[in-house]
Amino acid sequence: RMMEPEHILEQVIQFFNPKKDFQGKKVMITLGPTQEALDPVRFLSNHSSGKMGYALAKAFEAQGGAVTLVAGPVSLKLDESRFEVHRVTTAAEMFETAKSLHEQMVVVVFAAAVADFRPENAAVQKIKKAGEELTLRLVPNVDLALALGKIKSTNQIHVGFALETEQEEVNAKAKMVRKNFDLIVLNSATEAGAGFKHDTNQVRIFHKGGKEVQTALLSKEAIAEIILEEVKKVAS
Length: 236
Ligand code: CTP
Description:
The chain has 236 residues and is α/β, with parallel strands linked by helices.
């Protein structure tokens, strides 16, 4: 059977791509949402599609990177012939998987929209209606980026994402320091066509050292290429 035309095009681009700046380098990308069970049939989650993380995976691979994906539940097709794919559901599972792989990685991109909270107790049976209101008690989830940022070695590069609705730059830079990122990609919360569900995005990229890059509204593939260029600057 013929390969998907999109895959053939990527192979052709890769074949003729003279720049293989990540040849043999191990790259781990967290992507997608997490799901936190309320009961056997319900969960808390968010709208993350995983598209930005997957665009980055393809971009690193095109430059020779050996890419491992730690993916929450996404409807995207993840090509297991090109990537080492670990599928997880909860934040706790995503953390355990990412932690076990972290030490071997040269670049780690935290593109997942990890649920910050989970129900304190997932009900064993389906929660039945009982009265007018239902109060859920939520407890915090592990912060992967924060925890792995603490054990990051000097030859590892961590890239984080931020979505802020106020004091965007100040908050994103504070997040970069707190989570020990080398680069943070600030998603535009206001620009139409940017963010979670779209195929396009518009971002600002901040380096730990203070340098900043701003993109136009572009496809997530094009944004991924720009992020890669910035990762290279950290690496060199
Ligand atoms: N992140 C993570 N684990 C979490 C929460 C966030 O690894 N439990 C990572 C995300 O993948 C992203 C970065 O941290 O790269 C920032 O996520 P964001 O949700 O914006 O930050 P929070 O720390 O949750 O801050 P707040 O919700 O207060 O803005």
